[in-house]
Amino acid sequence: MAELRSSLVGSWSLVSYETRRADGGDGMTAHPFGDAPIGLFIFDADGNYSVQLTNPADSGASTASWGTYDVDEEGVLFILAPIGGTSQPQLSPGGKTTRRVTLNGNGTATFRPPVTTVDGVEIQGYITWKKVSGSSLPS
Q1: For residue 139, with 0-12 CB atoms within 10 Å meaning exposed, 13-18 middle and 19 or more buried, which class applies?
Q2: Helix (H) or strand (E) holding 132
C-alpha cells in the first residue's frame, strides 16, 4: 500500500511551524519563521521535491531545498535527499534527513523533523502544511 506516498504528491502551503520540548513539558515553544510564516512544499510522483520557507517579517529568515525523496510507508515518514539550495546543514547536498508524518484528516498534515537538542533540552519541530493541489488526503 502506498497511501503516504500518494497523499504527499502535490503542493502544500505552510500553515505553521513551531518547536516545543520533545517531552511535552512547558516552556521553550518557539516559531523559527515567525508567527505567520509563508512556505510551499511540492512533491511530484517521480520522487522529486522542492520546499521553501520564509518569515515575511524578517528577510533574513528563509530557507529552501530541492532534491529527491523516498517514503517509508511502515514508518510513516519520508526521507529527503537534497541536491541543492539550502543553508541548513542537515539538508546539505549529499545528506539525508527524515520527516515523520501525521495526516490530520482535515486537509492538513504535520511533518516532524528529527529531534534536536538546544541547551540540553530535546526539541521537536511541528511543521503543519495544507494540501493545495494534487489528490485529496484520506480522512
Answers
A1: exposed
A2: strand 121-133
Residue 134 exposed, middle or buried by CB count within 10 Å (0-12, 13-18, 19+)? middle
Cell of 67: 532534491
Q: Is the pTM of this model over 0.85?
A: yes
Please give the domain boundaries of the chain with CATH numbers for all domains: 3-130 (2.40.128.490)
In contact, 71 and 4? CB cutoff 8 Å = yes
What is d(CA 139, CA 134) in angstroms, rounded to the nearest whole number? 15
Eight-class DSSP state of 7: H
Q: Contact, 118 vs 23, CB < 8 A?
A: no
Burial tier of 106 (Cβ tally within 10 Å: 0-12, 13-18, 19+): exposed
pLDDT, one tens digit per residue, over 84-121 is: 666 665 566 677 889 999 999 899 999 999 999 988 99
List beta partners, residue 95. none
**Three-class DSSP category at 5:** helix
